[in-house]
Amino acid sequence: MDTLHIYIRVSSQIQVDNTSLKTQQDVGIELSKKLGMKYEVHNEGGSSSFSDNLDSRPVLSNIIRRISSGEIRFLYSWNPDRISRNQTVWIQIRTYLIRYGVILYTSNGKYDSNDYLENLLLGIISEITSYDNHLRRQRFVDARISRVKDSKFHGGHPCWGLMIQKTNQGSILVENPNESKWIRFIYESYLNGLSCRDIKQHLEKNHIKTRRGNSHWSLGSIQLILRNKSYLGVMTFYEKKSKKTYTYNIPQLISNELFERVQEKRSGILDVKGQYRRTTKSYLFREFLICTCGHRIGVRNSKEHYVQHYYCPKPERKFNKSEFDNSNCSMKRCLNIPQTEEFLWNSISNILNQPVPIKEKLNEFLMSEGRLNKRQLSSHVLKKNIELRKLQKTKSKLEEGIIDVERKNYLGEFQSDNIYTTLKKQLNKELLSISSKIESIQSHLSTIGNESKWFDIIDLFKNIISEGVQLTQSQKKDILRSIIDHIVVSFDGVNKTHQLNVNFRIPMLVGNQVLVSKPKTLRQDYSTVSQFPLTQDLLNHEIRDSRVEYLTMSVVLTSSNLWMSPYSAHQTELYHIIKNQHEVDGKNFQQISDWFNEHGYKTTRGKVFSQGHVWSMYKKKTKSNQRFGREFVPSFRSVTIDVLDSLPPTTPI
């Protein structure tokens, strides 16, 4: 018995859920019964037939292969355009149908490729169908462009956080309050140090569903939300045929400042995960360290060569000509990883446990702004309002510039599309920056009156890293992500010291809720997402407010022993013996060398001792101890208050 091969397809994945595929299949099966044939269904699903090749049509490609091998002689398709609307591809497929004598059935009848008249009719019908589809598609695109120009939704699935509202004039996008609050949660949580995995777990724990109704979130979906510019209130629509981009306004869900800060943080984290600095090992401070030349600090770690270093990769990249830069890097000494991580962790812990220097610096900052004196405070507010008005004028000029660029592009006044694209990109970038500065000043003015709260909260900083609590490296890193923005590393070649400028960014208030609270008892297997106080409060959606107040401070730590290579156990033992016998027993270096040789000791290179060996080891190590044993007091450079409002302004800015 012959077999009728039924080919079914729709144009997009969105149409797959509709009844079109089932209708095509049912009609084909009914035809096979009338013809007394068996049937085999070939379901392409959602795939555009305008494709220039068959690479995106695996099912159709398989049908052509089976036609070539003589397996398929009877083929059914609802319409010739289901097979292809692309003329080049359709001619190729018709060639196979004619060459191998395949009979094609459609909803309009039967076409025998061996019959010249029927083959001619099939060609004519195909061209008419193709022409009709092109007209239909153009009308569809024109309708979309018309909707976009009227600030109506152009179609498809709306962004997560928005929903479609039907009106008499057409569909528009409006804020979905049940989702938009979680958009702000995702952005704020990421900025405050939570990873995408932590955010994913919290969304799933609270039974928040994706746009397609899935209970499980992918990390890619969260990353897509974090880089989606549509949340700034502008939706874009790209028309492929004309290669033009159209924009229209939609509700803004997050502030420009929040979006810009998240992009900066993403850029830094992606750089750590990028090819230049990719690593399979985990380091406590690697993601925070930046060299004064602007490069992020890299890692060398080889147990075989006794190397464990943080270092600046700029010199080796210049040598390999992967970067063309005439500037030089002053980072001439690497940082020993274990010593640096221990020094930084202990120093940060000590800073947080000593609130007096922080309060003194904060008091200086508030006095400089006149916030502790009513008369000076009025002058400070006036100064900020004047600055705000200047920025608003600049913003208006930028908006006029963008409109002018669009007008010139529409009139074809630019010599190339590249000029138009570059100008528009630069203007949009400057507009985003100015908008962020405006929002920052508005948020700053909203904090006036909270000064007394800040001093009380600083006393609670000692609860962030509690003394006597043993933490794993993963737990330490989660704490650091919530309080450290970045650490700038430099080397002083004259004094032979490293300076580490630690830039803190500690969340203190969400609305009127104090974040730093009494720490809970941490188990060895605790989860940062559920138990670390700062993170727990940031994740607690019930207390969330749009405004978060941070204490930002810059503290310079100086150390002389972060690049010292550690002595081996054998070297340490030899030095202690020499030091004890020379300083306590009063022996000279010849006597000590004789004692080593009598007791079977060897030098680090396996040789017998001489007076020169003993003298050299003693002098070098003593001098090294003096140099590396220097201690320095942390220097507080600045303490300020930073305010971030996640909501866009309620009034136009």
What does this entry look like structurally?
Among the domains are: 3-146, Rossmann fold, CATH 3.40.50.1390; 372-447; 569-628. A hairpin with a 4-residue loop joins strand 8 (234-239) and strand 9 (244-249). The chain is α+β, with helices and mostly antiparallel strands. It has helices spanning 20-35, 58-68, 80-83, 87-99, 116-149, 177-191, 196-205, 219-226, 256-273, 314-319, 337-352, 355-368, 374-410, 417-446, 451-458, 473-483, 528-531, 533-539, 569-584, 589-598, 611-628, and strands spanning 3-10, 38-46, 74-77, 103-106, 109-112, 162-167, 170-175, 234-239, 244-249, 289-291, 298-302, 307-311, 335-336, 484-492, 497-510, 513-514, 547-559, 635-645. It has 21 helices and 18 strands. The protein is extended and about 120 Å long. Helix 20 (589-598) packs across helix 21 (611-628).
- Distance between the amino and carboxyl termini: 75 Å
The CATH class assignment of one domain is Alpha Beta
Name the CATH superfamily classification of one domain.
Resolvase, N-terminal catalytic domain
CATH architecture of one domain: 3-Layer(aba) Sandwich
Number of strands: 18
Question: Cα-atom Rg, whole angstroms?
Answer: 35 Å
Let me know the largest β-sheet. 6 strands, mixed
Name the poorly predicted regions. Answer: 519-533
Form type: extended
User: Taking all residues together, what is the mean pLDDT?
Assistant: 80
Relative helix content = 40-55%
According to CATH, the fold-level topology of one domain is Rossmann fold
Indicate the structural class.
Answer: alpha+beta
The tally of helices reads 21
Strand content: 15-25%
